[in-house]
Amino acid sequence: MTTRQRAAGAVIALIGALGVTASSYLDWYGGRDATDIPLERLFQTDSVGAPSSYWNSMALALAVVGLLGVVGAVLLSRFVLILAWLIGAATLVLWIVMSVNDDSLSVSAGDIQAGAWVCGVALLVLLAGIIGMGGGARRVRDETPAQAEPVPPPEV
Prior knowledge:
- The protein is mainly alpha-helical and about 160 residues long.
- The chain is built from four helices and two strands, in the order H-E-E-H-H-H.
- The protein has helices at about 5-20, 60-75, 80-100, 115-130, and strands at about 25-30, 30-35.
- A two-stranded antiparallel sheet has the order 1-2.
- The protein is elongated.
- The protein starts with a helix and ends in a 24-residue tail after the last helix.
- Keywords: Membrane, Transmembrane, Transmembrane helix.
């Protein structure tokens, strides 16, 4: 895997990570974007009200994905990009599961708005970039000697 291919994969992953972060400013459900959804919503089905600040909203987790995406792309680090993908995927999946399990909401696929869809597609782009970076397999040198001279038998 050349450095150019690795860098191209990192740029694609960066675009995906920034797409996840941008999705937090689009409507997710009921005209609410991720800045209006409390972070506790990922762990409880009860309605907990509005977040007290940006740092207590679900957008915080999505912003971390963007930050890790930038760091991972600059360092060409698949580990950091995979960590970003895991945080983004966990945020999306936990939000969907808790929204479906909430008794006060009747959620269907048609009710989910653009923000959640953009987040899902951006996560796929991020994953494609990580895969495009390659496995990082190192070339193994052929350690066998070309032609070994025969060793004469010991003299008696």
